[in-house]
Predict the structure of long-chain-fatty-acid--CoA ligase.
Amino acid sequence: MKKDCLLPISTFKFDNEAFIKDTEEGIYVSKLVGDGNLIGSFDNANCVFKLLQNTVERFPTRPFLGRRSSPKGPYEWVNYKQAYETVLLCGSGLLHMTSAASVTSKCVGLYATNCPEWLMLELGCWAYGLVAVPLYDTLGIDAMKHICNETELAVVMCDTPKRARCLLSNRSCLPHLRTIVIISADGDLSKLREEAEGQIKIILFEELLSLGEEHLEEPAPLGEDGLIVICYTSGTTGTPKGAMIQNKTMLAIISATSAVLGEGTVSEADIHLSFLPLAHIYEQYVEVFILYIGAKVGFYSGNIMALREDMQVLKPTIFTAVPRILYRIYDALSDKVSKSKFKRYLLDLAIREKLKCIDKQIYNQDTIWDKLIFSKIRRQFGGSIRMCLISSAPIAPSVLRFTRALFSCPVLEGYGCTETCGPLSMSVAGDLKGGHVGAPVPSVEVKLADVPEMSLVASRDNKGEICVRGRSCITAYFKSPEKTAELIDKDGWLHTGDVGVWTNRSLKIVDRCKNIFKLSQGEYVAPEKVEMVYRESRYVAQVFVDGDTMNSFPVAIVVPEQELLEKALVTAAKENSSTKIANGTKSRLSNGHGVGTGTATAAGLVSDEKSERSFEDLCKDPCAKSFLLSEFKRLGDAAGLKGFEKVKNIYLSWRPFSIENKMLTPTLKAARSIIRGFYAKELSALYTALPEPIKP
C-alpha cells in the first residue's frame, strides 16, 4: 500500500442509530449500551491522574508534549516519563505553597495560552487533590474577578507579564490572591515584583519546580468523586457559572469516547495539535484522551495566523476543527476555480468521485483526484491528517462533504457543552449522512422535553429541548444551588437549552430555546437554521437573523466577504448584465457535492467599478445589498425554507462580529443579545424600508 493510502473503513464502526431504551418517555441511548448499564469507568483507574500513571508505565520514553522554541524551528519533545516527573514537581510545589500560606481553598488558577506548562500544572493539581480553575481574557475583568473570589484563588499561573499585570492592577479586588507563577517574564521579573509592592509574590515557573523538588511528596490524587476542574461557562449575559468536573465525569467521557471510536481507530502513533483554548472543557477532554492512549500533543506557536505553518512542521494525524476553519479552506479553493467553468466542473467531479470511494467504505488518499487537487491542500495542513473531529457549531452539508473528500478520512461531528464534559452525542466513521450529530455517547441517555412557550410537545412533534442524564454530566454548579436547580430537574435530567429532533435515530440540533423567536402571525423561526442556509453563500462572512412578534418576517445583519463581493460587482459592471453574475456564482448549496451555478436575477445589480473603495463604502452600495438579497432568495428556495422563514431585508455591516467586540462568545457563538442591542436602530429600520421585491 502506498504511503498516502489509508486502511479500508472496515476498521471503523458506522452503525450509528441510537437505541430506544424507553418508548414511553422517548429515552435514547447508544447501541453499545442497549438495555444494559451506561459506560463510564475503568477497571485500572479511579481518577484521571491514574490514567497518566498507566500510560507512563506503558510508554515511558514515547514523546508526549511538544513545542517550537522558535518561529522557524522544529518541534521539541519531552517524553511521558519526563513530563510525569515535572507534573510531580508542579504539584508538590503548589501543595507546599498553599500549605505554607495556610490557604483554605484548594483551587489553582491557570491564565495562559495553550502550552506544555498549562497541561503539566493541571495534571500536577490532580496528582495532589488540588482543583484547576481556567481563566481567559475574553471572560472580561469583572467575570475574572468574580471567578477568582468565588473560588478563593490564592495561586494563579500566567504565561506573560501582560496577564500577570492584569491581575496585579486589580489586586485590591482580589483579597485571596497570594502568588503569581509566571512562565516567562521576558526580563521583566524585577519590574513585576516592584509593581506587586510586596502584596503578591511573583515567582517563575522554574522556581515552582525547584520548590517542588525541595518538598517532593508522593502523589495523593482524589478518588472518583473528587473535584478536579471548575470550568466556568462563557455565557453571553449574566455571571459565569462554574461547572464542577469530577474525576468520574472525565473518566466517563474518556471511556465512552474509546468505546465509540473502537479498537484501532486511534493509537499511540497519533499526533494532536493543541490550538483550541485549553480554558474550555472540550480541549481538556481531547488532551486527556490523547494521554490515555499514549499519543503526542504538539502545541501551536500561540499565533493563530501561523497555524498552517505549525501544522506543516508537526504533521498532526488528528485534526480537531471548528466549522469556521473548514469554511475558509472551502471558500479559498472555490474562489480559485470560480473564474473557469472547466475548473469548477473538475472540482465538482473530484468531490463526487472521492465521495463514491468513501461510500464504498474505502479511504484512499492516492487517487488521481488527490494528485490533481487534494494532496496539495492537505500538505498545507501537514499531509498526515487521518481523522477530523468537528465541534462548536453546525456545519453546512456541502462543506462537510468537501472536508471528507479533501482529507479522505473519517470526519466526525460531535455535540456537547461544558456541563457534559465534552460530547453528549457523536457521529461515527462511515456515517456519511451528515446534517446530524450522531447518537448519544454510551455514558449518557438523551430525551427531548416539551417546550411549552414554543407549543412543542416532544412526543407529538419529535422536537423539543435536548435533555441528557448520565455519568459524564456534572451534578452541580460551584456554589450556585439556584442555577443548579435551573439546570438539572428533579429526575436528574440536565436541560441543555438546545432544541433538537431525532432523524433516523440520530440527533439533529435545531437551535437554542431562547434564540427561537415568534412572528406576528404566530409562526416560530429558528434563526441558526436560517443563518446556516444563508452562510452557504461565499459572499457572506457572517450573518445574524432576527425577528419579533411585532413583525411578520425576519431580517438580517450581514457581514460580507469583502473581496469576493467586490469582485462580483465589478464583474457585473463590466458585463452590464445581472443574469451573468448569477450564472457565474458558486454556492455551497449549489448541488449535491459542491461547486455549481445559481440562478438569481434582480434589477439594478450593475455597479460602477470601485476597486479601491473601503469596506464601508461597499456595504453602503445598494447594488451590493440587491445582489445579496438575490443570493438569499436563491439559497432559501433551494433549501426549502418556508415563506415566513425567509429574510425580507438586510443591513450590510463592515464591522465583523468578534470576541473583542463581544459579539462572539469565547466559543465563537453569536452573542445574540449584544448584536441585537448594537444594531437595534438598523434592525428597526429594516422593517419600515423594504427593498423592491426580487423577481423570480
The chain has three domains: 18-41+317-512, 48-221, 517-575+614-688. The two ends are 53 Å apart (CA to CA). The CA atoms of residues 449 and 465 lie 5 Å apart. The first strand starts at residue 5 and ends at 8.
